[in-house]
Amino acid sequence: MSESKLSPLLGSRDIVLHLWPKHKDLLSFDPASVAALLYLQLALPGHFSVAYCANPDLSPSGQLPFLTQGLYHASGLSSIIAFVRRHPNARNLDAGLSPLETAQLTARIAHVDSCYGDLVNHMLYSLQENWIDVTRPALISMLPVPQRYYVPARIRESHKARLEAVELWDVPEVEEEEPEEQRRVVFGKRRKHRPDPEAHHFKKTFNREQVVERARALFDVYDRMLGDDRFFMGNEWPTTLDVLFAAHSHVLLDLQLPDPLVTSALTSYPRLVAHCRSVLSTAFPPNSPFPPTHQQGWLSSLRCLIPWPRTPTSHRSNHAALEGSPEAREIERRYKLWRWGFIAGSLLVSAAYVLYAVSIVLVKDGDVVARIGADDAPDDDDESEEEEDEVGGEGEPEAEADADAAAEE
Amino acid sequence: MASPFALSLPQPLRHFFNLFPLYTHPVIDSPDKARPVTSPTLWISPPFSPDADVLSSDVECLKWQAYLALRGLSDVAVRWDVAVDGALDNRLPNLHVPLKTLPGASPDVKQQDDGEGELLPAHLIPEWVDGQVGGSDALEGYASEAARDESRAWVSLLEGNVHAALVLHQPTSTSFLSLLSPYQNKPRPLEAVVSHPPAPLFGISSLLPLYGTHVNVDAIEQQYKEAISSLSERLGTDKWFLGSSSPTALDALVFAYLHCILHSKEHTLRFEVTRRVNLVAWERRVQSQVRGAFRPVEVVRQP
Lengths: 409, 303
Known about the structure:
Chain B: Residues 225-286 form the Metaxin glutathione S-transferase domain. Chain B: One of its GO terms (biological process) is mitochondrion organization. The structure holds 2 protein chains of 2 kinds. By secondary structure, chain A is of the alpha/beta class. Chain A contains 13 helices and 10 strands. Chain A has helices spanning 31-43, 77-86, 99-126, 128-142, 151-158, 160-165, 208-226, 240-254, 261-267, 270-283, 319-323, 326-357, 395-408, and strands spanning 15-19, 48-52, 66-69, 72-75, 185-186, 189-190, 293-295, 359-364, 367-373, 386-388. A 5-stranded mixed beta sheet of chain A has the order 4-3-1-2-7, covered by helices on one side. The N and C termini of chain A lie far apart (84 Å). Classes of the chains: A alpha/beta, B alpha/beta.
């Protein structure tokens, strides 16, 4: 949850939702981000703004999407939904459901989140063609220069544990770049064709048919549940389950993937495709304005290179969220005033000290040329005589003069 | 060798080889002898209190134990002296069955049974049980198709949210010996259970290689609480989950999770379940039924 326990009166009142950036037709690159956006748009239209940021490290829990309101923050889709439910102006999407139906809804949301989420991640991150042609270029375009070279591979690696556990991971360990005919000639001898290292590794064989079967089983369940209604549960307004399901469908349908394994299964269920479109059109009616967006600069991109352990509860919200508000600008102005005032004041005091308490004598060629500061300063121990050398070549004759003076003595 | 064209060893070479005679070592008697398997034996990880209980402490093993018991099998032996590395795919539970109970075996194979039996991994257990007590219908024991679809949702709720909370609060052994010993029952890591990959400990863009996970503990606990409250709401006062007339696989799964939660050392987990009286009462009732189907195998040590 990572929610701040401070009062909401501190800081600005604007809700800012931070998401993965848009990519071509998609509202956001990640299904959870799309779901958060749709949920907020349905529950709190016009009360929030969107910030696209491609840096998950800005979030308190390290994951996007996250939401800030002044000094509050909520990270992760379930926390965002819980936060919005408690907001006084929010429309309750699950109103009108009996307690039994609400309990069933919780289970179905978990089902969609895990099963459908796994299938979408499989399409984006595991299938090699999709990764090379669509996902990796998209991530590279969103990230700035130092991060774009290593962060996409890390993101892909982070999905490996889960997808391997559900047997949806099929990434070749060895890059198959060399075709078998070309063998490098090393010292005149043909390099031996090494046998496949996977042959002795008891890996479960990956079967594309199994993936399609799994997708069809999931879609069958939800197709039966939808029936001929516009939304699940037969309501007039989308529920949380509709939002989550449509978010995943939107990512699959509107992202042109070269290997449409699951998408082709989805398009064979026209009612589910229509459901996705109707949820999107309910959330964003044709003439309604999109919530105000601001693109975040990568001010801290170099700072992110430094490994910084995370504190478990950090009440500090994102810096950019505070910048916009008039109260924050007022505070900033006062700080600036005080800062520059202090510097100016200290310079003034040191100048006054130099002028009135200290006399500086300029010596050139052994003669006193000028005297700055207190003229009638007595030769007391208060006085500190400083010799200032002229810039340039005067140093040497003076040194010689001193040396002569010393030699004469 | 008997062919007239075979080459024979020349005499000097034979004398030389006679200096190195072949010596056959006597048979070594090992103290561990495999006893012939006469009744189906389930290999599980050890129970919470090995002297007093036969129910395993691991959720996976307990799930299959409950499945066997609730499908109507009885007098199944259990043993917990097999280490995890000795199991198929390094995952317990395994079911060791005599050959004559295998549904797909031919009669010749069944006759040649010398007590070795067949070791089945966990995913083949339902097929075996179907062979024993008769196959289940297309609805898998649920009241209707809608109930069966709903059961998929409950399964993923339990295996996702509730399992994540259990894995998070599992006590990690910190003794020096456990660091040295290579055989440890490694629990399923958290990254495989949570649906969104957790962030690495120092951030994804740091210069250090990825290490550790920054787990969103509050989110997991909040999802767990919602899961338990919706579970309790759905059970209501029914005898079996989703209003089925007879126990199903979902009941076995729910029982396994509830039993492990109630025996866990973590106070917050246990409290959520003990607050719900109907869940506690249900678990107690099913526990006695499950326990009655198993008997522990006496481990006999050969002198």
